[in-house]
Amino acid sequence: MEPRVTEDNLRMQGCAVVTGGARGIGRAVCESLASAGCNVAVNHSSAGSAQIAADFARSLEERFGVSARAFEADVSSFEAAASLLEDAACALGPVRVLVNNAGITKDGLMMRMKEEDFDRVIAVNLKGTYNCCRAALPGMVKARQGRIVNMSSVVGVFGNAGQANYAASKAGIIGLTKSLAREVASRNVTVNAVAPGFIDTDMTRAMSEKAREAALSRIASKRLGRPEDVANAVAFLASDAAGYITGQVIGVDGGISL
Ligand code: NAP
After folding, report:
1. Predicted confidence (pLDDT) per residue in 10-36, tens digit
2. Largest CB tally within 10 Å, which of 65, 102, 176, 225?
3. Residue 63 sits in which domain range?
4. CA angle at residue 62 from 60 to 66, to 5 degrees?
5. Protein residue with its CA nearest to atom 9 in ligand 1
6. Is 176 touching ligand 1 by the criterion CB < 6 Å?
7. Closest to 192 measured CA to CA, from 202, 204, 182
8. pTM assigned to the model
């Protein structure tokens, strides 16, 4: 007899938490994970994005037959990140996958960069990744099962003029990923990073036409990436098939780093 898909047995499978999951790359990641049968906690940052996130979670349920919910949390807050992981586990089952995707830019040349712009980018991108990992790890280690995927960037590997704060946060994520991977590999928890190049989202749409063209000229594939290009790599790293891959940084950049 076919097992019945009920809220209860869906819950038993646990869930994936995707920070910044309602827009851009995070949204595509949620869709990839849901299409693979994963329950998904869609995190968003504020009341302003609540409706979009709730509608999106409902559409994941309708399209993919999984459970999905929206959760508001500013990941730069240690307490908010802890509540996010706890609330997601209560609603959707144990957190098996964490995708630290939430990220912001506040660009400017270092000579003019305001202290608050440096601090905020580090707080959301790097500290937010620490906050969510810290909250997810006890459950994963206890269950001897977990997949963490952190969103870095080619900019974290090569640097970029005008993005010292962002590059520092994304390079920091690589160091965090490799260190944490060493700590928890023996507990069947993998920790990897994805380093996208230029992906067509709100973040890159905010670039000047000149900066976009300069980026395009350096991409071997001669096109910007799509959110789905990144989501496919994340979904693979989150899958059972990637159980022996840990501490790696996977470039998804159309060859910009060649
Ligand atoms: P995006 O379209 O601007 O989306 C950013 C996401 O982060 C939004 O969902 C936003 O949620 C969320 N977010 C921002 N601050 C947050 C906070 N304090 N707490 C929780 N969520 C927060 O950007 P994207 O291009 O999809 O980027 C996603 C990730 O990929 C980022 O880490 C980015 O650095 C990285 N990345 C992007 C590119 C690219 O070319 N696009 C390249 C390399 C790396 P709300 O909508 O609720 O504010």
Report:
1. 777 899 999 999 999 999 999 999 999
2. 102
3. 15-200+227-252
4. 60
5. 20
6. no
7. 182
8. 0.97
